[in-house]
Write a structure and sequence with these properties.
Number of strands of chain A: 0
Number of domains of chain A: 1
Order of helices and strands of chain A: HHHHHHHHHHH
Number of strands of chain B: 21
Family (chain A): Belongs to the binding-protein-dependent transport system permease family. CysTW subfamily.
Function (chain A): Part of the binding-protein-dependent transport system for molybdenum; probably responsible for the translocation of the substrate across the membrane.
Helix content of chain B: 10-25%
Number of helices of chain A: 11
Largest sheet of chain B: 6 strands, mixed
Number of helices of chain B: 9
Number of domains of chain B: 2
Distance between the termini of chain A: 43 Å
Radius of gyration of chain B: 22 Å
Oligomer: heterodimer
Subcellular location (chain A): Cell inner membrane; Cell membrane
Membrane topology (chain A): Multi-pass membrane protein
Organism (chain A): Albidovulum sediminicola
CATH class of the largest domain in chain B: Alpha Beta
CATH topology of chain A: MetI-like fold
Strand order of the largest sheet of chain B: 7-8-9-3-10-11
Helix content of chain A: over 70%
Structural class of chain B: alpha+beta
Strand content of chain A: under 5%
Radius of gyration of chain A: 20 Å
Order of helices and strands of chain B: EEEHEEEEHHHEHEHEEHHEEEEEEEEHEE
CATH superfamily of chain A: MetI-like
CATH class of chain A: Mainly Alpha
Shape of chain A: globular
Strand content of chain B: 35-45%
Shape of chain B: globular
Largest interface: A-B, 21 and 27 residues
CATH architecture of chain A: Orthogonal Bundle
Structural class of chain A: mainly alpha
CATH topology of the largest domain in chain B: Rossmann fold
Chain lengths: ~220, ~350
């Protein structure tokens, strides 16, 4: 592979890494709330959070394209602040990927928090820990397997997304041309060797990530 | 100093709890009653894990009322649960340090008192039930609590482990003078540990007061449920008889026990099961039972279709006797009637 072929690869890693990091921060309070709330709003929030799982990526991508373009409040605000458009930009890809991969972060965390339950948190409160202290010192450490799963799944899912990226980001080299788009583009021009190279890289990367996840889980389970 | 003042109502999912009582500032108050009586709920409300209607105050400080709620971590109330609830991601030392760091308590003395040195580096998952509960007790103490809540801390342990933990609880009660609220449905545990008893039945306060009084209170019968009722008698060891019996003195006379209960002068509490107390009108002669004491009937309440609980006054100590309705009629057991109580067996409840 030539150096030019690696640009989509690095772009994708940057995107997936950034999205995963932001998702861990955003999904934590959301998952915590979903795991513990008795509110009647909970099923509603759960449904909205899970929507990206079932929607065709093109549908999601289409609405994001509509929602992020400079004529909308959000797109306009971004335009005013940065002078660039959210659509067809790396920032737009990040926003789109956050929404697209949200359930992959929220669901493992929600399950992990539910498994931790209230008991250790109450024990922490008995030890004089404030709710935030208890969450940071007991809730998160006990849910660490959930964090690992959430991070790996969000990263891998962002890595491989295609439809949403194509709709929102188009195909701008170094900006929005992710590895999945690049592979599609190579195949369209019948450059199978390049498509092979990038595809194999993606397979290897995904495999290694999942293998590490399951191996860590096994170690944790054996304690 | 005032202790825990409760005046609370709590309705949830078809279950209503209503309790009004002023608990003492020291000693162990047993919250006693059958399962579903609301014992654990009461503890959760005192801990602040749930919010009740009404008022909870401790030592004059309001923890919960209409416009005011002190969150659990600011109450300095330690909780020990049936399962130890140790933090699985920390080792034993880490669990103790977790509490100590937040309270400023020193770990070393507590570790020494509870004999935890050999466990400090262990993972919590590898501890036995008794070890884990000892660590949980230590962690509770290291929060420097003003009040300790214990929710059936012995229920998950076998007999041997219980015998290990019971003296620890007694030590907390007597040496540290910390008020303890102790949930149990075991008459034996309550008889041994409690200075006061708060008897709950179906979410209501059935009886509350010093342990001896509650055990004798016929209103507490509902709290005993299927558990065998009995009475507590506070007595003092006088000495031994020539043929190896232990003599116990109390205002109602003298009780003989075949067990050596301790050196003379020791204050003890003995437990007499209601069905081990027989009633005779004239003093019976030629009887194998050793303890026959003059008594006066103070009350009679039904305890089932054919049985009654008769409260007997033995020189100020109230003792319950479980007899049949037929016997009550045959002997004409009405309040004020003089008779004799025959104690078939007594057991040491507590030193």
């Amino acid at each position: 592979m030539s150096l030019a072929d690696l640009t989509p690869f690095w772009l994708t890693l940057r995107l997936a890494g950034l999205v995963t990091a932001i998702l861990m921060l955003v999904a934590t309070p959301l998952a915590w709330w979903l795991a513990h709330s008795r509110s009647r709003l909970r099923p509603l929030v759960e449904a909205v959070t899970a929507l990206p799982l079932v929607l065709p990526p093109t549908v999601l991508g289409f609405y994001l394209l509509v929602a992020l373009n400079p004529s909308t409040p959000l797109g306009g605000l971004w335009m005013a602040a940065t002078g660039t458009s959210l659509t067809f930009s790396f920032a737009g890809l990040v926003v789109a990927s956050l929404i697209y991969s949200l359930p992959f972060a929220v669901q493992p965390l929600q399950a992990a928090f539910a498994e931790v339950g209230r008991k250790p948190i109450e024990a922490a409160a008995s030890c004089g820990a404030s709710p935030l202290d208890a969450f940071l010192s007991v809730g998160i450490p006990l849910a660490r397997r959930g964090y690992l799963a959430a991070a790996v799944l969000s990263f891998a899912h962002t890595l491989g997304e295609f439809g949403v990226v194509l709709m929102v980001g188009g195909n701008i080299p170094g900006q929005t041309k992710t590895i999945a788009i690049a592979i599609y583009e190579r195949v369209e021009v019948l450059d199978y060797p390049a498509a092979h190279g990038m595809s194999a890289l993606l397979v290897a990367l995904s495999f290694v990530a999942l293998y590490l996840l399951f191996r860590t889980n096994r170690r944790e389970a054996r304690g | 100093m005032t202790g825990l003042d409760l005046d609370i109502r709590h309705d949830r999912a078809g279950f209503a709890l209503s309790v009004r009582a002023d608990l003492p500032a020291s000693g162990l108050t047993a919250v006693f009653g059958p399962s579903g009586a609301g014992k654990s709920t009461l503890l959760r409300l005192v801990a602040g894990f749930e919010r009740a209607e009404g008022r909870i105050a401790f030592g004059g400080e309001v923890w919960s009322d209409a416009g005011h709620f002190v969150p659990p971590h600011r109450r300095r109330v330690a909780s020990v649960f049936q399962e130890p609830r140790l933090f699985a991601h920390l080792d034993v030392r880490g669990n103790l340090a977790y509490a100590a760091r937040r309270s400023g308590a020193e770990i070393a003395p507590v570790v020494r008192d509870l004999g935890l040195e050999p466990l400090l580096a262990r993972r919590t998952a590898g501890l036995s039930g008794g070890e884990a509960q000892r660590v949980a007790l230590a962690r509770a103490l290291l929060t420097r609590p003003r009040l300790i809540l214990m929710d059936e801390p012995l229920a998950a342990l076998d007999q041997t482990r219980r015998a290990e933990i019971l003296p620890v609880v007694e030590d907390l009660r007597d040496r540290l003078g910390l008020p303890i609220l102790y949930v149990s449905h075991s008459v034996g545990e309550v008889a041994r540990l409690a200075t006061h008893v708060l008897a709950l039945a179906e979410g209501r306060l059935a009886s509350f007061g010093p342990a001896e009084e509650v055990f004798a209170d016929s209103a507490a019968a509902a709290a005993f449920g299927g558990e065998e009722p009995g009475s507590l008698i506070a007595a003092r060891i006088i000495g031994m008889t020539g043929d190896g019996l232990c003599r116990l003195g109390f205002p109602g006379g003298e009780i003989l026990s075949p067990e050596p209960l301790g050196p003379p002068g020791t204050d003890v509490r003995v437990f007499v099961r209601a069905r081990d107390v027989m009633i005779a009108l004239p003093r019976p002669e030629a009887l194998s039972a050793l303890n026959v004491l003059p008594a006066i009937v103070r009350g009679v309440v039904a305890a089932g279709p054919a049985a009654c609980d008769v409260t007997l006054d033995l020189g100020g100590s109230m003792v319950r006797s479980r007899v049949t309705l037929r016997s009550v009629r045959a002997l004409d057991l009405v309040p004020g009637r003089a008779c004799h109580a025959i104690l078939k067996s007594v057991a040491l409840a507590r030193e």
